[in-house]
Structures are given as structure tokens and as C-alpha cells.
Amino acid sequence: MSGNRSNLHVAAARTPLLQSLQDELAELEQQHLIRRRRTVDSAQGATLQAEGKELLAFCSNDYLGLATHPLVVQALQKGASLYGAGSGASHLISGHSRAHMALEERLAEFMSPNVEQARALYFCTGYMANQAIITALAGKDAAVFSEELNHASLIDGVRLSRAATKVFPHKDYAALEQMLKACTAQKRVVVTDSVFSMDGNIADLPPLLALCEQYDAWLIVDDAHGFGVLGENGRGVLEHFNLKSPNLVYMGTLGKAAGVGGAFVAAHETVIEWLIQKARTYIYTTAAAPALAHALLTSVDIISGAEGNERRAHLNKLIAMFSHGLNLQLWQLMPSITAVQPVVIGDNAAMLNIAGNLMDHGYWVGAIRPPTVPVGTARLRVTLSAAHTELQVHQLAQAINRLDQMSYVAQCFAEVA
Ligand SMILES: *Cc1c(COP(=O)(O)O)cnc(C)c1O
Asked: Which positions carry N6-(pyridoxal phosphate)lysine (predicted)?
């Protein structure tokens, strides 16, 4: 069966249960909130094939272009020939392979300048890693302080922990301090994204960490969009701010800048040992294919080496080019020095219209709506990658400028009429 829109309307309900889902889907459709998948026929990259067209893609999180790096692809193939296609079991039974162990040791060594007595643990996904850390460190008797704009995987981890939860306003650490002061729970856990995934701005970690140390709280940092990209050597946000503390629990994902998949937690060895004993999303799941871990060893080599430096320098040049190249009358580019460069349009239908227009011109940008972002702030989420050329980024900025100008003029006429 195809997944196109007409199915929602024409399919006759056969049962009241189906009917209620169809009614709710129709409601979403009316609010322009139905999400659709586009099938990609090529590998990831600056350009890709989708729906019979060649598109310039500015929507992936493959920030360093490693998803198609020949050495990473080769390592994945080698990993499959060495270890087979699947791991066969969970880590605590017989699924923990030499490749997983080597990756964890490599990541611990890489992160050690910014992590006290560093040890690392590899997870199938960042989503699962976040569930693991939060539920293992915060139980029913704990208090969790969660940043307002945290990623869904952190929010779900907080819910699953059953801890008393307080949400603090975006980057408002004075408000957080009041909450910590008033807190009587012994176990305290503060949870934040480093780079906010839909805004591109960076949490102010130095004062946040100082607060956590002062009030004896863990600080869980989700660096999905920082690992590999931020910091001189790619060690992410901790290197960016030059931080190191036993209170820090660091989560980096490996499906974005590292180009493969999975995630890792880096923390004091005691924390990692605790996760191995307690984290249910680590214990009760089949280990990721060892070949992925084998490929990731090559990703980490590239990230931490001279080529990583070159790719980060190129990416940073593109980020500056894009933000300087935009000249918007109607829409707003959010302030961001990272590869996530969102252009806020506001209305869902208007934003979808613009994203569709860009697509017609061969540009694929992320089209982000509520509930992923607050109501009224639908946005184009442009993501840049070291795989892009300067010309490609220049062309995108020009295309967005043109559409903004046209919408601005249309709005002026509408106001006059
Ligand atoms: C992508 C993302 C995750 C989830 O990581 P996966 O490995 O894709 O499951 C977690 N946190 C943030 C901020 C992310 O952007």
C-alpha cells in the first residue's frame, strides 16, 4: 500500500478503533501537521537522488561528510567480513565483541582530556543512551532538572525515570539555581542539550557546570550535534568550553558527524560501571552489529586527525558564508555558530509552501513544525556539512533570499489592499 495523502481521506473505516485514528489523522492533515517520508535512492551526500530528482541536500546531520567516506565504508565492509552481519546477543550475554571493546577504549582515550578517569560505553542509538543515563542516575527518589528545549529523547528519559521533574526556562540558569536551592532530594540530575537541535545555539555550559558542582548535581550533556564538530580536535562541546568534571556525564551520538550509527556515553569509570549494571536500554537489547563499531574506529581516527581538522575548518567557513549571505526582510535566521542554521517562518502552511518551493528548485531543507518546535515558530532547518561546496551554500542562500523577498513584497501588498 502506498503512503500518499489520499489514503487518509478515502479509506472507509472498518471499525470504531480505526475510525478514531482516521479522524485524528484528518485533524493533523487540516493543521498541516502530517509528516511524510521521502525515499532516498542514493547514498547520503551533498547531492542525492530522491523521488526521481537530483537534490542538493541541506537537511542531514552528516556534518563532516563521513557517511560516504571511502575509508569508513571500507571499514564497515571489513567489519562485516571479520565479525559477520549481526552481534547475535546482548552485551551481557555473548554479543559484546572485540570491535565494541576496541571502540569503547578508543572513545575513552579520545575523550580523556575532558573526562575524569574516562571510560566509554557504546549504545545502539542516542535515544537509548539518553534513556539509559537518566533512568540509571535518577530514580523515584531523585529530582531531575530538565532544560526547556531538550531533545525528545531526553524528555522521554526523564519521564521514564519517574523522578520529580522540574523544567527550567531556556538557558535561564538563575531560575535553575532557585530550583536547586529549594530542592530537598539527595539525588539531583540536571539534563541539557549542548547544541539545541532545532535552534543551533549552544548551552552555556561553564556556569551550568559550576552550579551543578555547587549543588552536588550530575550534569548530563547531550552532544549529538557537537561531537566531531565542536572543539579544536572534535571532542565536542566539552573541548569547546575546555571543561572537565566528575559531575559530567557526556553523551555523543555516532550517526551524525561520525557518519555511522549508535552513540556513546563517556564519564568517570564508576558511572560507566553503574550503567552496565543498571541501564535497561543497555542490558535488554541486542548489541549493535560489531561491523558498525569497527567502522566507527575509522570515523574516530578521521575526526581526531588532520583530515578532521580540515573538514571542520571547511564546515566553519561554510557556516560563516551562509549566515553572512542571508539578507532577510521577513523571516529570521536564528543566531547560531553551529552547522544547524534555522530560518524561522512561523506559520506551518507558509513554511511548508516555502520548503516545497525550494524543493521544486532542487534544494532539500528540513521543514520543522510543532510539536518539534513551539507553535508559531515553524522553520526551515538548514544543516551544513563539510561535504558541501562554497558554491552550493551560496546558491542556497540566494534561493532563500529570493523567496523571502517575494513573500515580503506579497505581504506588503496584502497589507495595502
Ligand atoms: C539525534 C539526536 C538524538 C538521538 O540520537 P540517535 O542516535 O539518532 O538515536 C539525541 N539527542 C539529540 C539532541 C539529537 O539530535
From this structure: 256
